[in-house]
Amino acid sequence: MYLADLHVHSSVSDCSTDAESILKEAKDAGVTHLAFTDHDTTELAREHVELAAQYGICAVPGVEMSAYDYKKDRKVHILGYAYTKTKYIEQIGSETLKKRNENCLKQIGILNELGYHVPVEEVKKLAGKCIYKQHILDYLVKTGQSRTLFGDIYKDVFKNGGPCDFDIQYPDAEDCVRAIKADGGFAVLAHPGQLGNYCAIHRLAKAGLDGIEFNHPSHTASDKKRVEEFVRSYSLFMTGGSDFHGRYEKTLSSLGQYPAPDSSRVIFEGR
Predict the structure, then answer these.
(1) What mean pLDDT comes out for the span 39-62?
(2) What's the angle, vertex CA 65, arms to CA 64 and CA 71, rounded to 5?
(3) What is the rounded distance in angstroms from the CA atom of residue 52 to the CA atom of residue 55?
(4) Residue 128 phi/psi, 5° resolution?
(5) Whole-angstrom Cα distance, residue 109 to residue 104?
(6) CATH classification of 4-93+168-269 is 3.20.20.140, yes or no?
(7) Alpha-carbon span 38 to 61, nearest angstrom
(8) DSSP H stretches of helix in 55-172
(9) Of 57, 129, 186, 245, whose CB is crowded by the most CB atoms within 10 A?
(10) What are the residue boundaries of the structural domains of the chain, listed by start?
(11) Does residue 271 register a pLDDT over 60?
(12) pTM (predicted TM-score)
């Protein structure tokens, strides 16, 4: 049996749930293969593989690199799997995390100026090595300053031109593909339908892209058809996953709900 969820986040990055709790839930859901793909870091990746084995789940080291296609002005996320080294992934990822953390500290400062009470040290207790806006929003909920994570503060302050609606400069998507490949991993374009970046596939394939995410909560039937066409054209494989973030996601998806197609077995079987 092969029921693979290859897009799962943990409390190492921007998920509300720790790895062990996720693995217990995945086991109950019948998941046989899994990859933790925390944003821009390989921290605890090996440990998570070992922990998964204790639950009878086959896992590989994973990562999701936040990137940008500067030629077409589109955000791009690149998933990395089964890497044997971390040097090049960490070179890029550590810089992204540094920028993201600084960005969130600025947002916390603005919230305090607006009259909210958001002590940095308290938010850090909710985060891993990097603060995400989800941690800030969670703190606001926990302290009664907001009713929901994605309510008015999220929409009016963090989005739609609000005072905290600003982002960081991301690394080039092709460089992220090359980094994953240089570290011995498989590089996969995450949810192109969600970010509208199909236009980047040709250049990413030239950089060494191995696959495209097919099954994802945001993908429509039309998206899946387009992915199938691209993988045929460029001889790539397909993956899938729940993009699990626990409570830190507007639309909760269940582990194993968006399984990876059989062609993704290559991630576990090697080249």
Answers:
(1) 98
(2) 135
(3) 5
(4) -90, -125
(5) 9
(6) yes
(7) 10
(8) 87-113, 120-124, 133-142, 152-153
(9) 186
(10) 4-93+168-269
(11) no
(12) 0.97
